[in-house]
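Students often ask why we bother encoding 3D structure as a string. The short answer is that it lets us treat folding as translation between two languages. Here is a chain of 71 residues written in the first language.
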Amino acid sequence: MPEYRRKRKKICQMCAGKSVDYKDVMIINKYISEKGKILPRRMTGACAKHQRHIAEQIKYARFMALIPYVK
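And here it is in the second language, the structure alphabet:
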């Protein structure tokens, strides 16, 4: 009989104390897919409040031409 393991709930990194700023391109790239799309909450592990903040910062970084709209 196979044993089922529970997946550990992802903890929001921003609630833990790390922040995301549009100028930090290395951090922003963690929240963007290979094609340049914003990753969903279930993949990033962010809470709803901080997922909206991440999306806002990504869009602002695109506008400021720090990251491309499409890779």
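Translate back mentally: The radius of gyration is 14 Å. Keep this in mind for the problem set.
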